[in-house]
Amino acid sequence: MPGNGLWRTKSIEQSIADTDEPDTKLRKDLSAWDLTVFGVAVVIGAGIFTLTASAAGNIAGPSVSLSFVLAAIACALAALCYAEFASTVPVAGSAYTFSYATFGEFAAWIIGWDLVLEFAVGSAAVAKGWSAYLQTTLGLFGLDIKTEVGESFKFDWGAVLLVAVLTVLLVVGTKLSSRVSAVITAIKVAVVLLVIVLGVGYIKAENYSPFIPPAAESGPAAHTGIEQSLFSLITGYSGSTYGVLGMLAAASIVFFAFIGFDVVATTAEETKNPQKAVPRGILGSLAIVTVLYVAVTLVITGMVPYTKLATQPDGTRATLASAFSDNGVDWAATVISVGALAGLTTVVMVLMLGQSRVLFAMSRDGLLPRGLAKTGSHGTPTRITIIIGFLVAIAAGFFPAGKLEEMVNVGTLFAFILVSAGVLVLRKTRPDLERGFRVPLVPVVPILAILACLWLMLNLTALTWVRFLVWMALGVVVYFVYSRRNSVLGKTGHASVHNEPVIERGEEPGH
Predict the structure, then answer these.
(1) If you compute the radius of gyration of the chain from its CA atoms, what whole number of angstroms results?
(2) Which pLDDT value is given to residue 502?
(3) Is the distance from CB of 358 to CB of 96 less than 8 angstroms?
(4) Average pLDDT over residues 470-495
(5) What is the DSSP letter of 493?
(6) Which of 419, 403, 405, 407 is nearest to 453 (CA)?
(7) Which of 9, 14, 101, 401 has CA atoms 20 to 30 A from the CA of 62?
(8) Residues 356, 381: contact at Cβ < 8 Å?
(9) How far apart are CA 72 and CA 77, in angstroms?
């Protein structure tokens, strides 16, 4: 019977037809501008306010601006592939849906499980960061209120409050979420521009020399054993502090600052004209944030010597505010804290939005309980959104943030690799499909995207890889225990075995 194998694929036609089911229909409300706002909203967050300074001080020196450029290039290559897929398959689920159409059900499940890690862990980690900034901001206004209470058993009420409010917003509707994002995004972009314009006046040319500091065998970022990068573990070379390798290693870390532009692709099903709007939203948001990031890094490394931005012995990390405090501009620290608070708000919201759309797509396909895919009166997947809100609130409220940035990075890079490879597969197996956007220079661009993402993954710690593989192993167990048996594709045979699409009776080819 067709559809019993691990590699059964769901045809593009079937995926698009599923979007018209009344009980699981999403409302098409979003424009290219909405998607660009979502992209900028989720990308300008924790990264620009914290990573810029610490990556310069600990790993790359002034050349951290080049690290951001390298990370942006890797993202841009993958973004082109996302844009082609999203304009060809305008269905919720992003990389999960794309993989289902090209590599088959098992690979789709693995990437969906991987995206759960990216979005859920990211949401919880950033919510914790938001809560810490809330406490700082309240302190700046003379209110000594702790957002995390308890001794041995700690509860972060600030993070839980944020997740609860955002869950309600997401249930009420994506368009409303977009409007809230637009307002808050405007605030934080204004703060970032203020940092750039104000900081230019404090730049000292000597702070850029040397632009790429000489490599150090050990330094603030040096690690041994399983805590070192996988590249260092394999090659035995430990000199990834400063120098050219330090600049490359920093690119893997600051990649976290770009996390989220792929969320734009998860909203393709809710977009009015996805063939044009999704590519514009993805590439437009990435272009905007790259310019802002590079400008901020040039300003902050010009304001103070990079050595002053290194993490302190007590673990205190430098931030954008550190550079202004060092130059006696203390009032800017208050503005930056408020901007960071606004910035992290939209990051959590858009990550939760992306999480709900991936689980929605998986539930609609039967890989998770089908009842979860039911949409409410507002045209949003209410049940899934509430469940995600509850789980993220538990994680953010009761668990320490830890080293979650790297866990998010490894999951995202893995998704990028599959999507980039998927473009190559779909070009070969379905050249007939109408593509609203086509990746230029195929196969060169997808192959470069894969190689760039693999390099960034190699620069993450071996411990991160171990945690990632454990999470993936758990996903394999869930698939064979539940998902494979309950797959709609497996039960109905609405599949395309070996990438040959099955056209259902009464359905026009290409519909």
Answers:
(1) 22
(2) 34
(3) yes
(4) 86
(5) -
(6) 419
(7) 401
(8) yes
(9) 9
Separation CA 219–CA 240 (nearest Å): 9
Give the pLDDT confidence of 107-124 residue by residue, as tens digits.
889 989 988 888 888 888
- At 340-370, the pLDDT tens digits run 887 788 788 878 888 888 888 899 889 999 8
Answer for the pair 157, 147: CB distance below 8 angstroms, yes or no. yes
Interior angle at CA 247, CA 241 and CA 252, nearest 5: 95
């979650």: which residue's tokens?
404
Cβ contact 159:341 at 8 Å: no
Judged by average pLDDT, the poorest of 141-145, 238-242, 407-411, 469-473 is 238-242
Instruction: Check pLDDT > 60 for residue 310.
Output: yes
Write the single-letter amino acid at 421: A
Q: Reduce the DSSP state of residue 200 to 3 states and report it.
A: helix
Question: For the residues 165-191, what does the mean pLDDT come to?
Answer: 78
Are the beta carbons of 112 and 358 closer than 8 angstroms? yes
Q: How far is residue 342's CA from residue 8's CA, in Å, rounded to a whole number?
A: 44
The Cα 243–Cα 399 span in angstroms is 36
Which structure tokens are listed for 427?
A: 């070009």
Mean pLDDT of 147-152: 80
Side-chain half-sphere CA neighbours of 93 within 13 A: 29
The neighbour count for residue 203, using CB atoms within 10 Å, is 15
Three-class SS state of 371:
helix
Tell me how long the chain is: 511
What residues contact 108, with CB distance under 8 A and at least 6 apart? 10, 96, 97, 99, 100, 367
What is the helix (H) or strand (E) element at residue 149, kind and residue range?
strand 148-149
Both tokens of 232, joined, read 């260092």
DSSP code of residue 319 = -
Are residues 97 and 361 in contact, defined by beta-carbon separation less than 8 angstroms? yes
* Of 99, 94, 90, the residue nearest 423 (C-alpha): 99
Find out whether 402 and 408 touch, Cβ atoms under 8 Å: no
Question: In angstroms, what CA-CA distances link 104 with 2, 87, 118, 402, 420?
Answer: 13, 20, 21, 34, 15
With a pLDDT cut of 70, the percent of the chain lying above it is: 83
Asked if 420 contacts 446 with a C-beta cutoff of 8 angstroms, the reply is yes
Q: Which residues pair with 461 in a beta bridge?
A: 229
Of 83, 56, 154, nearest to 397 (Cα)? 154
For tokens 């190689």, the residue is: 451
Name the nearest CA neighbour of 320 among 42, 55, 38, 41. Answer: 55
- DSSP secondary structure of 223-283: --GGGSBHHHHHH-----BSHHHHHHHHHHHHGGGGTTTTHHHHTGGGBSSHHHHHHHHHH
The single residue listed with the structure tokens 């090659």 is: 235
Q: State how far the Cα of 39 lies from the Cα of 262, in Å rounded to an integer.
A: 8
Count other Cβ atoms within 10 Å, centred on residue 60: 34
Q: What does DSSP assign to residue 216?
A: B
